[in-house]
């Protein structure tokens, strides 16, 4: 799919939301801070990204996206062993205060474990846990997802350190004003840790898959996959990096602090399109 000035097609449900919002003179909802993670893995000379399709009953249901979700109050209050850039360093990259930066990074690691079964943590600052698909890990994941247990408690109980250095900042997107549920979402990329595997674990997804970014874009253009602008643009950006080393290099200079908000153009004649800027 070519990312250009013509914009992106808009799902009919979102067009309906936008028309109703404008007709009623609605007040934009306050965005909830969130985090999402592009899990990447090698695939021959190329690489793949892990995507999930949200269940139809959810906000943005039926749409393919990356694992992620809103920052939880426990993410802000978490006291946990931490490896990689300190919260003050993350604050500079994300454009927020150190405590808010810690919450976003913690949410990214927590959500990717909740929604894909991948844990970005290790016994030491230089290690990563291996297979976490056993029954005991699944019970811990379910406790975390149900908020019966905090992420910091889970890590501390197993003597683990959060590997914040495994998360690479990429971008920041804010949901359009007409949406009743809005998110201020920080996008990260991360390489699937060796020895771990994704699992279709989250009740929020009804389909998951690994796919090459270019293939995902082609299938979206063909109408096989429904994706919103943040997902489409991000897939195009990581595809343009060429390989996993290129993605890591690109991340070092990415602006992950300045938010991007898609705008829905509703012409009197013609097809509604999402446009950027």
Automatic annotation (TrEMBL):
Domain of life: Bacteria
MF (Gene Ontology): hydrolase activity, acting on acid anhydrides, in phosphorus-containing anhydrides; metal ion binding
Sequence ranges assigned to domain Nudix hydrolase in this UniProt record: 30-233
Cofactor: Mg(2+); Mn(2+)
Record-linked SUPFAM superfamilies: Nudix (SSF55811)
Gene3D superfamilies according to UniProt: Nucleoside Triphosphate Pyrophosphohydrolase
Alphabetical UniProt keywords: Hydrolase, Magnesium, Manganese, Metal-binding
Annotated protein name in UniProt: NUDIX domain-containing protein
Taxonomic lineage from the root: Bacteria, Bacillati, Actinomycetota, Actinomycetes, Micromonosporales
